[in-house]
Amino acid sequence: MGFFRRIFGKDDYVQPMAVSEPPRSTKPASISYDPKLIDSLHTDHARLGALYERIGKHDKAGEYAQVRTLLAHFKSSLQAHILTENVRFYAYLENALADDAENARTMHEFRRDMNTIAREVVNFVKAWQNSDFASTAERQQFTAEYEKVGGLLEQRLDSEENSLYPLYQPT
Q1: What does the alpha-carbon distance between residue 129 and residue 26 come to, in Å, rounded to a whole number?
Q2: How far, in Å, CA of 103 to CA of 16, rounded?
Q3: Which contacts of 72-78 are long-range, i.e. CB under 8 A and separated by 24 or more positions?
Q4: pTM (2 decimals)?
Q5: Cα 4 to Cα 14: distance, rounded to the nearest angstrom
């Protein structure tokens, strides 16, 4: 006999109700326009840029414990930013541009390119966040990769701000 049946007695036992799944909509969920989203994404870009610069300053100063810490922080901040963009920005644009084939195609190409760049940046961070930077060659390799990835990151942020963010308009 179950715990509740012992406490309340056999006669008070109520069969659990069958739980059914709510009906699934055939329409994709609509993302509403957020007038503060672009400002928030610009703020993210500024913070990511500043954080990336701090990594470079600590690299030049030979402070590799700080480099590792900042790399981990940078990675989590970048991933949070990308998630926001994918869920709120790109999803909204995809819906808003459904009837504008040319801009929709441009947005999809940018999104693919931006996600490729983001993967490269995250892979760079993963490769270095646990490094001990023991040798001069390893430190030089980090600096070279840091500069290359910084260029990619700058390209991503500039492209989004100049080409994609202006497309985010209320419908």
Answers
A1: 43
A2: 52
A3: 72/125, 72/129, 74/48, 74/125, 75/122, 75/125, 75/126, 75/129, 77/44, 77/47, 77/48, 77/51, 78/48, 78/118, 78/121, 78/122, 78/125
A4: 0.78
A5: 10
Q: Which two tokens stand for residue 156?
A: 């991503």
Q: Is the pLDDT of residue 152 over 60?
A: yes
Are residues 153 and 52 in contact, defined by beta-carbon separation less than 8 angstroms? Answer: yes
d(CA 72, CA 32) in angstroms, rounded, equals: 32
Residue range 93-120: mean pLDDT, rounded? 89
The two three-digit tokens of residue 7, written as one number: 């406490």
pLDDT value, residue 3: 34
- Pick from 169, 13, 40, 44: which is nearest to 103 by CA? 169
> Tens digit of pLDDT for each residue in 75-96?
999 999 999 999 999 999 999 9
Long-range contacts of 88-92 (CB under 8 A, 24+ apart): 88/31, 88/34, 88/37, 89/37, 89/41, 89/164, 89/168, 91/31, 92/31, 92/32, 92/33, 92/34, 92/168
**Any idea what the Cα angle at residue 79 is, between residues 34 and 36, rounded to 5°?**
15
d(Cα 70, Cα 147) in Å, to the nearest integer? 16
Q: 161: how many CB neighbours lie within 10 A of its CB?
A: 14
Q: What pLDDT shows up at residue 84?
A: 95
